[in-house]
Amino acid sequence: MKTDILLGAHVSIAGSIDQSVDRAQELDCTTFQIFTRSPHRWNYEQLNPEAVSTFRKKLSKSGIKVAVVHMPYLPNLASPDTKVHSESARSLAEELKRADTLGLPYVVTHLGSHMGRGIELGQKKVAEALVQAMNDGSSGSMILLENMAGQKNSVGASFSDIGKIIDLAGGDHRIGVCLDTCHAYAAGIDIATPGGMDSALSDFDSKVGLKRLKVIHLNDSKGGLGSGLDRHENIGRGHIGLSGFRAILSRKEIRHLPMILETPVGDYTDFKKDMQTVLKILSQTQ
Q1: What's the distance, CA 213 to chain centroid?
Q2: Measuring CA to CA, which residue among 238, 243, 151, 155 is closest to residue 197?
Q3: At what angle do helices 194-207 and 159-168 cross, to 10 degrees?
Q4: How many CB atoms lie within 10 A of CB 48?
Q5: Which tens digits make up the pLDDT trace of 160-197?
Q6: How many CA atoms lie within 13 A of 227 on its CB side?
Q7: Taking the CA of residue 154 as centre, how many other CA atoms within 13 Å lie in the half-sphere pointing to its CB?
Q8: Nearest partner of 129 among 96, 177, 178, judged by Cα
Q9: Where are the alpha helices (DSSP H) in 103-237?
Q10: Suppose 37 and one of 8, 44, 179, 183 were both cysteines; which one would form an S-S bond, judging by CB atoms 3.0 to 4.6 Å apart?
């Protein structure tokens, strides 16, 4: 793979967190994403110092330029429930500490659901959680807000929504954005045509600022435009399609960023197929 292209996938930490680097190298990744703990549990063990040391050594020797942490799924930063909100902010603070310990620059987080209490309250609760986590996390790692797919009661499906949250959090420079292509399309943002991409990037720059765009989740969409369906598909096999990814990957604002696949896999060879598809598109759109 060309070393100036940052392309990879979400890989497992099974066995030991340092083995994620091995798995990324097997896929010929130049970037990758991990969970640092189970994504389906609140409880977690502290990182093993020996495994951390091995992870950092392997990553340094690998030539992989950027690795990214993804938050677990259970936290809901937008929750109106005091206990859930507090635990979610605490979880994010802990993830910032873990990313910093591993030497990783970004923590990607979903924003969650306002549980029927309204988008404005949801925005406010997310902003409060971000401020609390940054104050408690004491980390040099950035929080990246991942756009949502427009599910019922979700917070963060539009660029104006994300921009408002960042403003409410004081415009802190430690907050960026991870753009998920499936989520954007499902939320009704037509990124699958050149004109649609023009409009989307212009809107993003106006509402958020392109300087905050740090990572791309490259996923096709099982649902149609505006479906609100958060279901990823392999590259070119969904509603975005190959022509849609040509429109996306032709943009200089996108192609220089870390691009991470979260597409369906039966085994890792599926990631390799999707990476080959992406590389072919990139070679055709230079």
Answers
A1: 11
A2: 243
A3: 20
A4: 13
A5: 999 999 999 999 999 999 999 999 999 999 999 999 99
A6: 16
A7: 20
A8: 96
A9: 119-137, 159-168, 181-186, 194-207
A10: 44
The amino acid present at 83, given as its one-letter code, is: K
- Average pLDDT of span 59-68: 96
Q: Which residues of 196-221 are buried (b: 16+ CB within 10 A; e: fewer)?
A: bbeebbeebeebbeeebbbbbbbbbb
Q: How far apart are CA 253 and CA 270, in angstroms?
A: 27
- The 10s digit of each residue's pLDDT in 248-258 is 999 999 999 99
Amino acid identity of residue 148, one-letter, is: M
Look up tokens 């212009």; give the residue: 202
Both tokens assigned to 255? 């192609």
Give the pair of three-digit tokens for residue 133: 């986590």
> pLDDT at position 1, please?
53
State residue 3's pLDDT score: 59
Report which DSSP code applies to 210: G
Neighbour count for residue 90 (Cβ, 10 Å): 17
Give the pLDDT confidence score for residue 269 in this predicted structure. 75
Phi, psi of 270 (to 5 degrees): -65, -40
Q: Are 175 and 143 in contact (CB under 8 A)?
A: yes
Domains by residue range for the chain, with CATH: 7-284 (3.20.20.150)
Q: Contact at 8 Å (CB) between 241 and 191?
A: no
The amino acid occupying position 273 is: K
Residues 6+ apart with CB under 8 A from 232: 182, 219, 220, 221, 222, 238, 262, 263, 264
Q: Does pTM surpass 0.90?
A: yes
